[in-house]
Amino acid sequence: DRYSAGNFAAGGTIPETGVSEGGINTGVEMTPEPGVKVWRAVPCDLAFPCACENEVDADDARALSANGCIALFEGANMACTRGAVELVRAAGMIFGPSKACSAGGVAVSALEMTQTATFKQWWPSKVEKEFNCIMEHVFRQCLDSANYFQLGNNLSAGATIAAFLNLADAMMLQGAV
Predict the structure, then answer these.
(1) In 3D, which of 90, 49, 36, 83 has the Cα closest to residue 66?
(2) pTM (2 decimals)?
(3) Nearest Cα to 152, choosing from 160, 161, 143?
(4) Which residues contact 34 (CB under 8 A, 6 or more apart)?
(5) CA nearest 34: which of 3, 4, 10, 65?
(6) Does 87 share its domain with 130?
(7) Where in the numbering of this chain does the Glutamate/phenylalanine/leucine/valine/L-tryptophan dehydrogenase C-terminal domain appear (predicted)?
């Protein structure tokens, strides 16, 4: 098993041994050559671009695919260019769009607000369990919507459709439609 590459604005990877709780900067190795993006320099199974918009371009996506990457999940808003997304899909890689992946941050905020509103502090294991349940639901909505409309595993289209259907349902329940 190969480890996944993590990205930093300057380009870097997380070693197989992981990173200590003491700080993200310990154990981080820079890419072999200055200016070479981590997506092209480090083979990985999973890619998580999290630094900025348009971080992964078509050439990066091509390199990820050629190096055996099976999935790319946008941790930043629109971390991939349109060309990168098209190449990822054409290569048969799983693509986790930012609009679905970003639900994780929103979910954590909602869990924090729930704790505050109820004057209770949850154990980390309960937070993790609730978070996993929410993210599994988001994934299932994306996949089910894509499958219902015969779009295969196009999670991006599934996320858009699921969001629209949720909004339309809410509007109808409120009598707005």
Answers:
(1) 90
(2) 0.77
(3) 143
(4) none
(5) 10
(6) no
(7) 6-175
Cα 150 from chain centroid (whole Å): 23
Inter-residue contact 78 to 53 (CB < 8 Å): yes
Q: Is 18 left (phi over 0), alpha (psi -120 to 50) or beta?
A: left
- Residue closest to 61 by CA, chosen among 75, 76, 82, 77: 82
User: Could you report the average pLDDT of every consecutive run of 10 residues in the chain (177 residues)?
Assistant: 47 55 51 75 88 93 96 93 97 95 92 95 94 96 97 94 96 94
Same domain membership, residue 102 and residue 74: no
**Residue 44, beta-bridge partner list:** none
Cβ–Cβ < 8 Å for 54, 23: no
Domain at 53, CATH number: 3.40.50.720
Which domain-ending residue is among 74, 96, 118? 96
Identify the helix (H) or strand (E) that includes residue 59: helix 58-66
127 lies in which domain range?
A: 98-177
